[in-house]
From TrEMBL:
Source species: Mycena sanguinolenta
Ranges of compositional bias, category Basic and acidic residues: 426-442, 683-692
Catalytic residues (positions): C283 (nucleophile)
Chief place of localization: nucleus
Nucleus among keywords: yes
Keywords associated with the record: Methyltransferase, Nucleus, RNA-binding, S-adenosyl-L-methionine, Transferase, tRNA processing, tRNA-binding
UniProt family annotation: Belongs to the class I-like SAM-binding methyltransferase superfamily. RsmB/NOP family.
Subcellular location: Nucleus
InterPro entries xrefs: MeTrfase_RsmB-F_NOP2_cat (IPR049560), MeTrfase_RsmB-F_NOP2_dom (IPR001678), Pre-PUA_NSUN2 (IPR057285), PUA_NSUN2 (IPR057286), RCMT (IPR023267), RCMT_NCL1 (IPR023270), RsmB/NOL1/NOP2-like_CS (IPR018314), SAM-dependent_MTases_sf (IPR029063)
KW Nucleus (keyword) present: yes
Any one Pfam family match given in the protein's UniProt record, by short name: Methyltr_RsmB-F
Protein name: S-adenosyl-L-methionine-dependent methyltransferase
Amino acid sequence: MHNDRFTTYYQSQKILPDGEWDVFMETAQSLNATLRDTHVPTLSNVEFEGQSIPPPVQIPWYPDGLAWQFNVPKKVLRKQPEFKGFHSFLVFETEVGNISRQEAVSMLPPLFMDVEPHHKVMDMCAAPGSKVVHHFPRLRILTRRRPLNSSKPSTRKTPSPPPRFPPAFSSQTTATTSARTSSSTSPRVSPAPALMVTNLDASIYPQLKLPSATNANKMETLLFDRILCDVPCSGDGTMRKNLGIWKTWQPMDGNGLHGLQLRILQRAMKMLAPRGRIVYSTCSLNPVENEAVIACALRNNPDFRLIDVSEKLPALHRRPGLTSWRPTDKSLCTTYDTYETFMATCAEGDAVKAKMTRGHWPPEDVEKLELPKCLRIYPHLQDTGGFFVAVLERSSTGMGTAAVEEAGEAAPRKREAEVDESVEIPESKKPRLDVDGVVKAEDDAEPPAETTSVAAEAATKNPAPPKAGKQKKGEGGGSFKENPYTYLAPNDPAILSSRAYISPPAFPSSNVLVRTPLPEGDAEPAPVRNMYITNALVKQLVTHNDYNRIRLTCAGTKVFTKQEAGRGADAQFRVLGEALPLIVPYTDPEAIVVGDFTTLRILVEKAYPLCAAFPDGGFKDAMTARGTGSHIARFPRELDSILSHDLILPLWKSTSSITLMIDKKAKSALSMRVFGKDITSPVKEKEPRGAEDAEGEGGEEEDAGPVVVSLEDVEEGLDAADAGGWSGRRCDGRRECIKLVWSRKNGRE
Ligand SMILES: C[S@@+](CC[C@H](N)C(=O)[O-])C[C@H]1O[C@@H](n2cnc3c(N)ncnc32)[C@H](O)[C@@H]1O
């Protein structure tokens, strides 16, 4: 990230000694620097089987050079040594979420959102989640004062003021989650204190209520500052990669999706705050899915206009939106100039079959809508997929602007479903509209049936998520069976037991929630296993909206989890690595143990290094003096030039060993970056028995500390080997954390 004002101001304040500014700025981009300075030079001038292989190049239009592109056959990645190493780097960094791989143009919509840290953001169709991650670097500015796992703890004794967490929302569907997450209903986004994930049909998204800012006794509806509508589409812009589309493409794909796309966009329009912005995008080239949708939405909502974004991303080659197009039906024989000519040729019922409505055609006042302000991206322009983006803004008053008002006069202003007027649609299939023409999406509203058979069409390509409150198991994503969201009292014993890390009262203890099932009858409440933290707005929304109604699948970020402490000791809460940026600002600096480079190597290399394995001195002494359980360690960059910044990592001390408590893949990624290769040992490694362990049968296993691996590892392990030797338990019902309880059956651990 770069900001001239920031640079000028802070350089003139001399907050850093001479010569340190560049290092300071580099820190923010350390991963990109690793890629640029370490990998790209080794990948230049590479030959494979007599062919020169081009190195990765930066995508010219992506801000700050943070996006890269390379075209290399799989064979090269597998066999050519430099590319093989680069591939491992990519795989590990992707696994831990530092890099995300996607079609270049898919990165466009978030760039046009102009999200600011205080914004409330909604992603209407978030699954599988690759665009949500692009909002976060900006949204997280305030949640992470320092980069993840790289912060230098404050030297102040007084805890820092609480971070402000901006809110983000995402509506998503279950059906497109990748195979890896198919058991989960969440898109692949990392949770954050400001994030809620709901699983609903975006076209009937319910209103979210929260107490009025001016009158606490009143409730008001949440309006968003930014909404992304990356809608389900025919996807024909991806034809370069999805070769199957060449076989199956037909105009009905787009015709059928138009209605759903329009309903999703118009629902977003109703949820947007004055002066707010909507980015509408598809990876389709079809004007019926693009300009036609925008035209209908603008005519029905005169308080919206298209924004001119021609100055934005100047290096992006684009073409303007169309002002004329000619829809066609299945026969493809004829394209029709107007809706009327189409209807004149139609036998009764054909229009419904063709899924065509008046809204598929350019309206008469098309010029007034300024459709050329939309962006069309074509594959040949810049070696990308095909894409469409429109950026819409709501007027400051919520009233129509002059130009659009005029356009609106020609249109039936109050009817969202203008597009359906001339098509005979069975009563049962019509959406229920409220007085403003909004599809009813409240508790009392029946979820509307599709206006045409668009949903059936959509379902084949992008299966829609289940409808609010009406699901049965197996119906579009399964039943909704989440545990309730319960905020703990600030003096709850679970929170108090985490005091080792946090310094109340500054820590926002009242924003800690748990997901334990409600006790039945007189039964004792289930013990707390995990604690999550949310920002204040998410707390308000969770407390004032029925989580079943909004099908809330995730809120906030997990910060503490219960850990068995070994034989004879009570279970304790341990802090999670991904929560450290949130927890460290509240942690007494004295509580953080400092390690050196050798210590870090031992922790990365060994799964359960014995306490005795560490060199005498600082770290070992400090850890010896501490009790068993969860600890936080800092590895300062000054100690070795290889570290470009401080690392802050979670540890677990058992009676005999000290374990680095990060996911195995994160550990490998860390190892690749710090040591240039993966020096980690397999989790199944058997540690030599130390003197302290020799006290009893099986003592080592119980004392060695937990193993944290990903679900995939377990699944692979179970698939690949005789499963009899393993038993796994999901800690939180999600993919990221597995505790393995192992036995010695079959001689395996
Ligand atoms: C173009 S994709 C979105 C991709 C996503 N923005 C990303 O970057 O990962 C459209 C998604 O919308 C989902 N979808 C389909 N019908 C939907 C509906 N009625 N409401 C919400 N999402 C829907 C599809 O399953 C698909 O995952």
